[in-house]
Amino acid sequence: MVTIRDPKSFHRLAAFFFTPRVQAMVRDAIAPSSELRLLDAAGGTGVLREACSPCGFYSFDLVMERVKNVRASDPDAGAFVGDVTRLAAADKCFDRVLATGLFHHLDDEQSILAVEEFHRVLKDDGRVVVLDAIWPINSLNLFGYMMRKMDEGKYVRNEEPLKDILLTKFKPVQAGKFSSRWLDYTLMVLEKR
Fold it and tell me: pTM score, two decimals?
């Protein structure tokens, strides 16, 4: 298992996989504007912050060093240590929730709690954008399997089981799978039911 504690190393690794193409996909899914308030759940070091601009940006992460990195790089961002299964946020206060690389770190029970929290903090016309690790699309991608096994996220799923969890509170707007530098991901956009 690979664990990266240093926020700068974590940021560089995330930026390597979240290429300009991936950032453009996230930006299109979010459709950012200055009127929107966005929660970057499990925001890490804020590697996708630019893709969310000019939204009002709020980030939660469990690791204080990563939160400090977001605060240092963008003093206007609201960056907080927090647990996505118990968000310290008011009901219906966000227009968008971005969950990047989150669900493969949560078991099914924790994932359901996070989905319930996202539903609670989203406005009625809000959207959730999920970008997460999935098992390799191509069964011959041995490097992808090895990398997913080394990831500290113990709950990598295929797209369908993750979608089933999200559909408990949301309806799909768009969903797809893609590869970025040997690793596969799903990108889903969902609305409240």
Answer: 0.90
